[in-house]
């Protein structure tokens, strides 16, 4: 289904983005990693080059491109190179994201701007620039890693700036799914039921204790694979949750995704916005 399809992923040098990239590479996809990290970071694992190595080891073709998705010219150049290298773009995964779980008075405007420029504007920009190529694909998909639009005060009050920026990605799904439905371009969102063991969880949210109560990025990767394998004309405008996607595919045992196999699913930490 995904063999020789070209996937453009933002921020895929580590974590959930990398897990999705490797999963799709196992199906024979061409994967474009458009991310900022080209040199090793002292606190974060992985670069676009180590990601490319993993993608190729999994059986796919990789194109690592250093891209800051806040810069329109860089994104356009990356999209052009991806399309010219592989003959088009079939799937876009808007994975790049910035997070700061700070209340209003503790949120510096440079941090506010960073989240909105990467999460909302970056998603809109990359979608806009990939669309001319997606419109030529026979089963085009855009998947945003963003939450259901759950308009409850409790999800805004503790960190309104982050919630606004993250929901901006989800509003792109809502709007673009309707805008491009007749042309057959699918726009969907995917969000985890539990926290996922990533650098953000380790460094920003809860350290080792929260990591133990999380699932691995592979659950998001498997869910993404199933969504992207569906007919784009039939599967659009959805706000998917990883666990629900896999249950619909017949998965009943989620033990393999737990970081700590001694914990039960009930002991895992639910993610935001659900």
UniProtKB/TrEMBL annotation:
Domain of life: Bacteria
Keyword set includes NADP: yes
SUPFAM superfamilies per the UniProt record, alphabetical: NAD(P)-binding Rossmann-fold domains
Pfam families assigned: adh_short
Keywords from the UniProt entry: NADP, Oxidoreductase, Peroxisome
Residue ranges of coiled coil: none
Location in or out of the cell: Peroxisome
Family listed: Belongs to the short-chain dehydrogenases/reductases (SDR) family.
PANTHER family: HYDROXYSTEROID DEHYDROGENASE-LIKE PROTEIN 2
Name the record gives this protein: Short chain dehydrogenase
Upper classification of the organism: Bacteria, Pseudomonadati, Bacteroidota, Cytophagia, Cytophagales
């Amino acid at each position: 289904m995904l063999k020789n399809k070209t996937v453009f992923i933002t921020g895929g040098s580590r974590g959930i983005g990398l897990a999705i990239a490797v999963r799709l590479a196992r199906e024979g996809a061409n994967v474009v990693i458009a991310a900022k990290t080209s040199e090793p970071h002292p606190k974060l694992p992985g670069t676009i080059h180590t990601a490319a190595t993993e993608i190729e080891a999994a059986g796919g073709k990789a194109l690592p491109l250093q891209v800051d998705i806040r810069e329109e010219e860089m994104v356009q150049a990356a999209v052009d190179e991806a399309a010219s290298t592989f003959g088009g773009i079939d799937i876009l995964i808007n994975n790049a994201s910035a997070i700061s779980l700070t209340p209003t008075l503790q949120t510096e405007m440079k941090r506010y701007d960073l989240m909105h420029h990467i999460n909302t504007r970056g998603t809109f920009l990359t979608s806009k620039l990939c669309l001319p190529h997606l419109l030529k694909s026979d089963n085009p998909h855009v998947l945003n890693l963003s939450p259901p639009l759950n308009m409850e005060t409790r999800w805004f009050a503790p960190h309104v700036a982050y919630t606004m920026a993250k929901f901006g990605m989800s509003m792109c799904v809502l709007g673009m799914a309707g805008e491009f439905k007749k042309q057959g371009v699918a726009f969907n969102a995917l969000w985890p039921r539990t926290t996922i063991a990533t650098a953000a969880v380790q460094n920003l949210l809860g350290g080792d204790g929260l990591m133990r109560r999380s699932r691995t990025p592979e659950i998001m990767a498997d869910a993404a694979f199933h969504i992207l394998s569906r007919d784009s004309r039939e599967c659009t405008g959805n706000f998917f949750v990883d666990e629900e996607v896999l249950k619909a595919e017949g998965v009943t045992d989620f033990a393999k995704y737990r970081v700590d196999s001694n914990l039960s699913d009930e002991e895992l930490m639910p993610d935001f916005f659900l």
